[in-house]
Model the fold of this input.
Amino acid sequence: MNIVLGVGGGIAAYKVASLLRLFTEAGHDVHVIPTPASAGFVGMATWEALSGNAVSNNVFDDVDKVMHVRLGHEADLIVVAPATADLLARAAAGLADDLLTTTLLMARGPVLFAPAMHSEMWQHAATAANVATLRRRGVTVLEPAVGRLTGADSGPGRLPEPEQIFAAALELVNSGAGGSGPFAMPLAGRTVTISAGGTREPLDPVRFLGNRSSGKQGVALAAAALHAGANVRLIAAHMDVPAPAGVELITVQTALELRAAALAAAEDSDVVVMAAAVADFRPLHSSANKIKKQDDVADPVITLVRNPDVLLELVRDRTRTGRRQIIVGFAAETGDEQSDVLDYARAKLQRKGCDLLVVNQVGVDKVFGLDQTEVVILDRHGAEPITAAGSKTDVAAAVISIISDQLAAT
Done:
């Protein structure tokens, strides 16, 4: 396989030498294109010695061979590592100011970016927009690892290990765009709306009626959908974790705000996943002033009213408009002496009419806020229930995989 390996100007460039070795030892022919800035970290001689090919980053070298055209056309795969914030920005904008970016514009095969940068740069809105743009075009942009960065800082932005990038690259080629596998892009070109977190219903300016949802599962689902190539909207109520870079973020507080956002976003969504914990009830009245505790005044009585059933409305809207759309609900359930968790969940699935219902049992020290979880995924069309367990990232990957399979089938 002919591989073009682009090397960005970041300190993680030294790790790419190991990635190059993995490619060459697997029998692949690799042409390295280091950016001019990367030469400050790793010299040209290293790339030539490890690849066995001449190395250049100048469009005026070997002009008669029109290198950017030849390399771009002949490449079975282009891998860029480390993909700095600057490189991602230039690639998203379609700039062609050096040999690597001109080669990227000529690429007709799969392209994979392995980002590495400081956390604030990765989480910056500009970088998030650039990543989203590249993913919409069918480019694979891996999530950076979380760990020690330059200096004493830690966080998201660390270059994935060379073995991980190597596996991702080969999986991308073997499965093909739209294929299956952990690094394929089965949701490329699809729009996925995901709600996450817990709504808060105000009692007064300082108090609210809320729930224990952390938003971790919804964020994991958003990251998994991004990884599968989707254009992701995240409708975020209160969350204990940040939204992943690359999503279109819509922030809400109350169930009514979430309802309006979800109904609007669903109009052009291929998939809607309602992972948020939406309050079933809200106070009938919200005081404009703080409710004060007074000895000579009776304790306040809070009257609650039912919130709209957002999931049910989404299903009804889909039926009314004839949209071809997959709708996924979440159910946090407890059992009792009458029925167990799955009995209640199956009844809920029939009432709601969504395609999939992801069910978890809640209670003291279960699910909310934890990193490990276990769910059962019920299918309205009668497929056998599927159990997924592990980290919330693992569960998110399982849910997105099932969604991808259903989209492919329809």
The first helix runs from residue 13 to 25. The first strand starts at residue 2 and ends at 7.
